[in-house]
């Protein structure tokens, strides 16, 4: 039996504008001071399987992600884990997300953000509507 996550929310990091990388070829910005947050357009949800259900896994996973100017996620890392198996599923799902890239001076830029995915199981395998996006 395969269940889909009932709820998830996105929280974008709101720190002062500064490059988040020391790579001279690609500046990675943080949200704020003229840099807009990436906006998720396609958000496949990680699957919640029967093993997760049996372990009664629920709560939040906090991840760091870098979104490039094409809106593709890179450098995904778990900042606050929930469960090793669930964390892996969350990272795999986030890697498939598509974003409207963050913008600076009207141009798409690479932006580092934080994503919070909240796990709550929907009854009888029916997916619930995603939670509101938060910034």
How does this structure look, described?
The protein is mainly beta and 135 residues long. It has one domain: TonB (TolA/TonB C-terminal domain). It has 2 helices and 9 strands; from the N terminus they run ββββαββαβββ. Strands 2, 5, 6, 8 and 9 form a 5-stranded mixed sheet that branches.
At the first level of CATH, what is the class?
Alpha Beta
Shape: elongated
Tell me the fraction of residues in β-strands, as a range: 35-45%
Largest sheet: 5 strands, mixed
Secondary structure category: mainly beta
Order of helices and strands: EEEEHEEHEEE
Task: Provide the low-confidence segments as ranges.
Answer: 1-24, 123-135
CATH architecture: 2-Layer Sandwich
- Rounded mean pLDDT is 76
- Total domain units: 1
Task: Name some characteristics of this structure.
single chain, 135 residues, TolA/TonB C-terminal domain, two-stranded antiparallel ribbon, 2 helices, elongated
Task: Explain briefly what this protein structure is.
The chain is mainly β and 135 residues long.
């Amino acid at each position: 039996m395969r269940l889909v996550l009932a709820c998830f929310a996105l929280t974008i990091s709101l720190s002062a504008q500064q490059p988040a990388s020391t790579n001279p070829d690609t500046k990675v910005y943080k949200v704020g001071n003229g840099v807009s947050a990436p906006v998720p357009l396609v958000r496949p949800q990680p699957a919640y399987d029967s093993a997760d259900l049996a372990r009664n896994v629920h709560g939040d996973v906090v991840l760091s992600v870098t979104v490039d100017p094409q809106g593709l996620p890179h450098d995904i890392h778990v900042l606050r884990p929930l469960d090793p198996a669930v964390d892996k599923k969350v990272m795999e799902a986030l890697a498939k997300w598509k974003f409207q890239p963050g913008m600076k001076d009207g141009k798409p830029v690479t932006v580092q953000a934080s994503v919070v995915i909240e796990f709550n199981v929907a009854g009888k395998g029916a997916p619930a509507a995603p939670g509101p996006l938060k910034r």
